[in-house]
Amino acid sequence: MAGGRGVSEETWDVAIVGYGPVGAALANLLGASGLRALVLEREAAAYHLPRAVHFDDEVMRIFQSMGLAEAILPVTHVSPGTRFVDGQGRLLLDWSRSPDVGPQGWNVSYRFHQPDLEAVLRRGAGRWPSVALRSRTEVFALEPGAEAVGLRFEDLSNGRIGRARARYVVGCDGARSLVRRWIGAPMEDLGFHERWLVLDALLRRPRPDLGDHTVQHCDPDRPATYVRGTGDRRRWEISLRPGDDLSALARPEGAWPLLSRWITPEDATIERSAVYTFHSTVARRWREGRLLLAGDAAHQTPPFLGQGMCAGIRDAANLAWKLAQVLRGRVPEALLDSYGSERAPHVEGYIREAVRIGGLINTTAMEAVVPAAVLRGEATARLAPVRPALGPGPAAGWAGPAGRLLSQPRLSDGTLLDDRVGLRFAAVMRAGFAAALPNELLDRLSAHGAVLVADPAPSVGAMLDEAGAQAVLLRPDRHVLGAARDAAEMRALAEAL
C-alpha cells in the first residue's frame, strides 16, 4: 500500500481510524470503488494471536464482492454447526449445518484464524493505489468542518505530530473508540455482562474425539463453549465465578485445571489465555455529520453466535456503497443517515439472540425453552437459524422486498451473480419480462450504473420468486433497493438511480 505521501496537503475521501478486520474490509470496498482512503492504525502489524474465529455465508459473500473469497477459502474450515449438551454430555439442542453450499453461494458457517484472515484482507487492500496506510499512527484529535474533517495524529515511531483531512471519517477503532467519543454517542446496554476465560490451544497430537461441532456445555456448575478452529487450533470459553483468581487464570499454567475435563498438557499447548468481560451494547448514534462508526466502535456482542466480527463486516458493506454514492454527488448526504437506521436494528437482533443463546447455557433458562422430554434425554430439540431484518432504509419501485438479502443465483454460464456484477447496482429480471420492456428503459438503467441481468437460469427465477417480483434492483451490498411487478414499477426503479 502507498505510504500516505503528502497527507498534510491532501483531502482524502475517507479516513479510516483502525485497521482490524472491519477497517481492512472497508478499505478494500472503498478501494474497489475507486475512492481515496487513508487508513490510520496505531499498531505496526496485525495482532498475532487468535481473536474472532467465525464468519458466515453472508460475510463470505461480502469477501466475494471484494474479489477475495478464493484467497480466504484456503485458510478456513467449514463448520458443521453447534450442539448443546448438559453436564453429563447428553444432547439437548442440535444446531447442525448442512455441509453443502447454501443459498448465498457459500457454506453457512466457516472457522478461521484471525491473523490469517487479516493477512488476506491487508494484501487485498494493497491492490488499490487509492488506499494509503499509515501504521504506528495514533489519532488524538478530530476537527469537523463544513467540507471536511481535520485529523491530528502522532507518529509513534518518532513522536512527530501530523495532520490530514478527509471528507468523512469512519471509526473502526474498537470498543474504546476515539471517534465515538468525539461523536458523543452513548451506548445502549442490552443487559448481558459476564466474565469468561478464553483459552486458545494448539493440539500436540490428534484428538478426533473432541469433534468438529461447536459444543455449548450447558453445565450449571461451569458453563463452557468448545470451538474447533482451523488445523490444530481449538478454543474453550469458560464461564468464571466470583471467587475465581483472574490473575492466575490469565496465565496458561493456571488455566489447566479448568481444561482438564477435555485435554491435558500432553495433548496441547495453550497459545493464549485471556479473561474477557462479554458485553451487549449498541450505539444510539452511528453518525454525527462527517463522523461515522463501524464494528466494535458501534456495537458489542457476547460470542455465542459468533457474530461480532460478522456484524462489523456487514457495517462496512452497508456503508461503503453509500459513501461512494454521496462522494460522487449522485445522492444527497442524507443517504448516510440510513446507515445507522438499517444497521442498528439488524445488529441488535443478532445481539439479543446471542444473549438468549448465552442464557440457554444456564440450565434454568434451558428448562424454559426446551421440552421436558429433551431434558430427560428422551428426545433432541433443533435450533432454527436467525437472520434479523435491516431497519428502515432507502427503497424504490415496489418496496415489498426492500432491504432483504435474497439468495445468490448461479447464472447459465456457471458464474455466480456477484462475480458478474461486482460492486455495482444490478437489475435482475426474468428473461421474458426484460424482453418486453422498452429499450430506452433498459438503456436508462445501464446509463445510471446498473448491470442488467436477464438470465434464464432456474436459480435466477427462484431468487425472483423469493421477492415475489418480475425484477429486483440490487444495491452494491446485494440487498434489495426495490422490486418491480410491471413496467411502471420498473420505470420507478430506473428513476431511482
Description:
By secondary structure, the chain is an alpha/beta fold. It folds into three domains: 11-75 and 111-187 and 281-345, FAD/NAD(P)-binding domain; 191-279, D-Amino Acid Oxidase, Chain A, domain 2; 396-496, 3-Layer(aba) Sandwich (Glutaredoxin), CATH 3.40.30. It is built from 16 helices and 25 strands. It has a nine-stranded mixed β-sheet with strand order 19-16-12-15-14-13-5-6-20, with helices on both faces. Helix 8 packs antiparallel against helix 9. The relative contact order is 0.13. The model is unreliable at 2-8 (pLDDT under 50).
Question: Topology, pairings included?
Answer:
Blueprint: E1 11-17, H1 21-32, E2 37-40, E3 54-56, H2 57-65, H3 69-72, E4 76-78, E5 81-86, E6 91-96, E7 109-112, H4 114-125, E8 131-134, E9 137-144, E10 149-155, E11 161-171, H5 178-183, E12 187-203, E13 214-218, E14 224-228, E15 233-239, H6 246-249, H7 252-259, E16 268-283, E17 287-288, E18 291-293, E19 299-300, H8 308-327, H9 337-360, H10 363-369, H11 372-375, E20 381-382, E21 396-397, H12 417-421, E22 425-429, H13 431-436, H14 439-447, E23 450-453, H15 458-467, E24 471-474, E25 480-484, H16 487-496
Parallel strand pairs: 1-2, 1-11, 2-8, 5-13, 6-20, 11-18, 21-25, 22-23
Antiparallel strand pairs: 3-7, 4-7, 5-6, 9-10, 10-11, 12-15, 12-16, 13-14, 14-15, 16-19, 17-18, 22-24, 24-25
Helix pairs in contact: 1-4, 1-8, 8-9, 14-16
GO molecular function: 3-(3-hydroxyphenyl)propionate hydroxylase activity; FAD binding
Pfam families: FAD_binding_3
Domain FAD-binding: 13-353
